[in-house]
Design goal:
The model has no long low-confidence stretch (mean pLDDT 94). This protein is of the alpha+beta class. Strands 1, 2, 3, 5, 6 and 9 form a six-stranded mixed sheet that branches. It has a three-stranded antiparallel sheet with strand order 4-8-7, with no helix packed on it. Strands 10-11 form a two-stranded antiparallel ribbon. Helix content is 55%, strand content 9%. Helix 2 packs across helix 21 and helix 7 packs antiparallel against helix 8. The protein is globular and about 90 Å long. Bound molecules: ligand LV4UQ37V and flavin-adenine dinucleotide. One of its GO terms (molecular function) is FAD binding. It holds the Pfam family ACOX. Belongs to the acyl-CoA oxidase family. This is Acyl-coenzyme A oxidase.
């Protein structure tokens, strides 16, 4: 997005835009997945961002905890009313598209700045119904949930257990006499803890609980539980529910707790698309017990896109600010330079710009895999489930950590002003860092990836189980480490280097594992002792996969101008070189010291080349000023005016002498006289 009136724009930004080497709209359309989507997004933005319904009377930072919740709930309900009932919105987007745009972290996050209390309803409750409910159950629940007649959340995590799903303590015991399940939280640690929207918003939840029938436990299953009266919203008998208190970020999402005291629900409130319990209490096994975890897989895919969108916002703010900010003289006597001119600043920002594309290409390919698995024939679905699980765990972990670290680098790149709430960087950083924890804590996700890699590498697959396409390289002959450097240092050569590292690390881990077991160590303890190496292997595998998706994605792009193609190729190369500095490519023999020096020189040259396009590149992300919501990042670069205007809005500045002075400071001043 460029400023409407160019004459009020900061001159440095104008200069930056003038020497752009590519066509920004081409990148905008690529990121939107087509020019039609760009038009649609613009119309939705125009409608919502100019609608006074969604204005904040007081900046949310100055509201109390309860006021913030109430303010965000007001706007989120108004948003839902719009896409359900307003023909203008429906004509623009259609209900589905409206929901995607409003609940994802694009337009919606500009409206509900502190977290959307209804997000979990759309992001997890509805997807859980779609992936877990039988046809009959869908017919009953989906329409009501879609129309907002019921509001749900996804209640899995407990005080005592989050990562270890099998360790959940909430029980759902079938009573064949009444044909009901009895849901119960037997201990303090079994209290559900964290679900978004659970505290005060949701009146229903998909509750994950250990299923007991005919005296046997069948593991975690999903149940729909009504929490609150649909009319009065009062919590129902047997339900203790509330909010868990302030968090690092997204404080309006009313993350909650839930304790169930022998709550009875009808048998058909167990979601029965995969596993079933008959009226008499017989358990009917699903084709795979992991199908119950399908909702998490969907959300892990969504998080990859979401983290990438957050990074787009952070790098837009930091890059524009770096073009406006002048600090110190590069050459004494020549005047202060834009901080973007410093090589160290380029090294902070340009890899983040490249990461946006690496994440986009990888997330899109993952989405394709998700769709082919979930919509393919049943047998193929089951065969590809481990590959989908591993890619979604690994990419979720990589996108979450790359993007949250990237957002924080962008915050640091803005110096002191990046620490101001009005830069919007603290909010972006705290929202993004949560993606490293929720929907599978990152280390736990890496260990899942490693487990599968080791299984494939050591021929531990069950009979009939095939290794997925992304790990076929583990079965292929090891690439030639003595190949000439011009072959090893190409884009595909560097992808190969990551694969070499994965194999070497798996070999190391396996040998260590065998040595420990042979020496009498219990196998699971031996595996834990190898887990640092295993996590390294998982991370190298995913980095190689992301590099490969980026290279292949750019190679396959069609119909772009030469300038745009060149910039994308340079960003891709920059991404590969940035990560090639990892010790693993050197340590496992793919690169020599001389290769590393050569790649570093190429990296520095690329920083200089891409520096000239940095502002135009972030412009091409086409993020509306109201979505950026930043004093530092607006398209016109009026940084200092905005900082001052925002400071004046502080409630402390509404009085010259605050009341607190008379209460506390005056007595102190007097007593020390
Ligand atoms: C509209 C769209 C907008 C998009 C916007 C997005 C914005 C998002 C905002 C949302 C905000 C917040 C949402 C957050 C919600 C939550 O956090 S919900 C809670 C999430 N909790 C977790 O993720 C728990 C993590 N733990 C687990 O998933 C499992 O416990 C674990 C994967 C660790 C596996 O556990 P194991 O110890 O291995 O035990 P088992 O369960 O028995 O597994 C045995 C084998 O099965 C394999 N496995 C596991 N999971 C899957 C799966 N899903 N699919 C396929 N296979 C699976 C596992 O690898 C084992 O395989 P093996 O025996 O080795 O062959
Ligand atoms: C903002 C936010 C929103 C959330 N929303 C929801 C929601 O809507 N619904 C819901 O059900 N939950 C939700 N959660 C909970 C979230 O899914 C869990 O916090 C997450 O899965 C991590 O589990 P945990 O908290 O038990 O961490 P723990 O597993 O206790 O992690 C603590 C440490 O132990 C380590 N660790 C744990 N297990 C292992 C292992 N096997 N091997 C090695 N190390 C291990 C971890 O790496 C970590 O360093 C939310 C959490 C947050 C922060």
């Amino acid at each position: 997005m460029k400023p409407a009136a160019e004459n009020v724009c900061n001159p440095d930004l104008l200069k930056e835009r003038a020497h752009c080497r590519f066509i920004p709209e081409e990148i905008t359309h690529f990121l939107d997945n087509g020019s039609e989507n760009t038009k649609l997004r613009h119309k939705l933005e125009e409608y919502f961002l100019n609608n006074p319904l969604f204005d904040d009377d007081i900046p949310p930072d100055y509201l109390s905890h309860s006021e913030r919740y109430s303010n965000e709930l007001r706007k989120s309900c108004a948003m839902v009313q719009c896409f359900l009932n307003d023909p203008t919105v429906q004509n623009i987007a259609g209900q589905m598209e409206g929901v995607r745009m409003l609940m994802g972290n694009g337009l919606g996050s500009a409206i509900t700045k502190d977290g959307n209390p209804l997000a979990l309803h759309y992001v997890m409750f509805l997807p859980a119904l779609i992936s877990q409910a039988s046809q009959e159950q869908m017919a009953y629940w989906i329409g009501r949930a879609w129309a907002g007649q019921i509001i749900g959340t996804y209640a899995q995590t407990e005080l005592g257990h989050g990562s270890f799903l099998r360790g959940l303590e909430t029980t759902a015991t079938y009573d064949p006499d009444s044909e009901e399940f009895v849901l119960h939280s037997p201990t303090i640690t079994s209290i559900k803890w964290w679900p978004g929207g659970l505290g005060k918003t949701a009146n229903h939840a998909v509750v994950m609980a250990q299923l007991y029938t005919e005296g046997k436990c069948w593991g975690p299953h999903a149940f729909i539980v009504q929490l609150r009266d649909l009319d009065t919203h009062a919590s129902l008998p047997g339900i203790s529910v509330g909010e868990i208190g302030p968090r690092l970020g997204t404080n309006s999402q009313d993350n909650g707790f839930l304790r169930l005291h022998h709550v009875r629900i009808p048998r058909l409130h167990m979601l029965m698309q995969h596993a079933q319990v008959t009226k008499s209490g017989e358990y009917v096994q699903p084709a795979s017990s992991k199908l119950t975890y399908g909702t998490m897989v969907f959300v892990r895919v969504a998080i990859c896109f979401d983290a990438g969108r957050q990074l787009q916002r952070a790098v837009t703010i930091a890059t524009r600010y770096s073009a406006v900010r002048r600090q110190s003289e590069l050459v004494p006597g020549e005047g202060e330079v834009q901080v973007l001119d410093y090589q160290t600043q380029q090294h902070k920002l340009l890899p983040q710009l490249a990461t946006v594309f690496a994440v986009t290409f990888s997330a899109r390919r993952l989405w394709e895999t998700y769709n082919s698995v979930t919509h393919g024939p049943k047998e193929a679905q089951l065969a590809l489930l481990p590959e989908l699980h591993v890619l979604s765990c690994g990419l979720k972990a990589a996108c979450a950590s790359d993007c949250s670290l990237g957002c924080d680098v962008c915050r640091l790149a803005c110096g002191g002003h990046g620490y101001l709430a009005s830069s919007n960087l603290p909010r972006i950083v705290t929202a993004t860092t949560a993606t490293q924890t929720y929907e599978g804590e990152n280390t736990v996700m890496w260990l899942q990836v490693a487990r599968y890699l080791l299984k494939v590498y050591s021929d531990g697959l069950e009979s009939g189980e095939e290794a997925g396409p992304s790990v076929q390289f583990l079965r292929e002959p090891r690439p030639d480490l003595t190949a000439p450097s011009h072959a090893r240092l190409t884009n595909y050569g560097l992808v190969m280097g990551w694969r070499v590292a994965v194999v070497a690390l798996l070999q190391e881990a396996q040998q260590e594992l065998q040595r420990r077991v042979a020496a009498g160590q219990q196998p699971d303890r031996a595996r834990d002792a190898c887990s640092l190496t295993l996590v390294d292997a998982a991370q190298c595998y995913i980095r190689g996969h992301m590099c490969c998706q980026f290279v292949a994605g750019v190679d396959e792009l069609q119909g772009l101008s030469a300038g745009t193609t060149l910039v994308l190729q340079q960003l891709c190369r920059l991404y590969l070189l940035y990560h090639a500095s990892s010790s693993h490519l050197l340590r496992h023999g793919w690169l020599s010291g001389a290769d590393v020096s050569q790649l570093e020189a190429e990296y520095r040259a690329l920083l200089t080349e891409l520096r000239q396009d940095a502002v135009a590149l972030v412009d091409s992300f086409d993020i509306h000023d109201r979505i950026l919501n930043s004093t530092l990042g607006a398209a016109d670069g009026r940084v200092y005016d905005r900082l001052y205007e925002e400071a004046l809005k502080s409630p402390l500045n509404q009085q010259d002498v605050p009341d607190a002075f008379n209460k506390y400071l005056r007595p102190l001043l007097k007593s020390s006289l």
